[in-house]
Amino acid sequence: METAARTAPAAVIVGIDGPSGTGKSSTSKAVAAKLGLRYLDTGAQYRAITWWMLHNGIDVNDPAAVADAAGKPEIVSGTDPAAPTIAVDGTDVSGPIRTQEVTSAVSAVSAVPEVRTRLTELQRAIAAEAPAGIVVEGRDIGTTVLPDADLKIFLTASAEARAARRNGELKGKEAADLAATQAALVKRDAADSGRKTSPLAKAGDAVEVDTTELTLDQVVECVVTLVEEKRSA
Ligand SMILES: Nc1ncnc2c1ncn2[C@@H]1O[C@H](COP(=O)(O)OP(=O)(O)OP(=O)(O)O)[C@@H](O)[C@H]1O
Ligand SMILES: Nc1ccn([C@H]2C[C@H](O)[C@@H](COP(=O)(O)O)O2)c(=O)n1
Question: Nearest residue CA, atom 24 of ligand 1?
Fold first, then answer.
């Protein structure tokens, strides 16, 4: 008796880029979970290497010192969208990488070409190993890391909306000044967009989604639909 040959759907690679606070992490995790894909937060990797530099007394404003040390830490990312992890030399740094000290230093460290080369190689290797595919989020995924991704999304939102979202995360903690939050977001975006090596930028073939007036569920639905359209094309 003949058995019908069953082929698993080809792995799908989705890149999601955009400025800070546009919803990349929330959207990417939810899309990956819905579609059974892996999830990679490349911002967490840049934060992890920044944490290591600070922890080891490297002057983060000295590009030569950062470049010399760029190959030293071992960065390991767990890609389960329900429980992503990030470790440096075996230490879980998921908490420490979110401190203000790291946030203030990460743009300087991520502008160093040796850091970018190191992490880009790691990101490509992780994407290549994802059996059903992966959602990778960052700043240069569509332009540099995975230029052949099946689908590229560029999320945007007004600076006001992004600052309000960030402050919303602080509920129950010390209330942050909205104007100060907005100024910090805009400053980091300017640094990330202005660096020479693979700056924050929309790839020419990316789909831009302005999330200012959309709920997270609406953004997730929009991206899931775009992935399904690509898969059935
Ligand atoms: N469409 C949306 N509407 C309202 N809130 C949202 C929306 N998308 C994300 N958020 C909220 O905004 C905050 C920032 O989202 P998220 O961390 O996903 O952004 P991001 O682009 O990954 O930021 P960063 O680049 O700084 O890591 C979170 O509190 C998240 O719950
Ligand atoms: N592909 C990437 C991802 C992140 N960065 C840098 C620039 C960001 O300000 C920083 C932290 O990212 P976040 O956690 O806010 O997503 O990391 C980058 O240069 N390239």
Answer: 20
pLDDT at 4: 47
50 Cβ closer than 6 Å to some ligand 2 atom: no
| Cβ of residue 185 lying under 6 Å from some atom of ligand 2 | no
Confidence class of residue 177 from pLDDT cuts 50, 70 and 90? confident
- Write down the mean pLDDT value for the chain: 94
Does the annotation flag 18 for ligand binding?
yes
pTM of the model: 0.95
Cβ of 169 closer than 6 Å to ligand 1, yes or no, is yes
Task: Tell me the residue length of the chain.
Answer: 233
Report the nearest-CA residue for atom 2 of ligand 1: 216
Tell whether the model's pLDDT for residue 148 goes beyond 90.
yes
Residue 172 clears pLDDT 50, i.e. is over it: yes
Residue 6 pLDDT exceeds 70: no
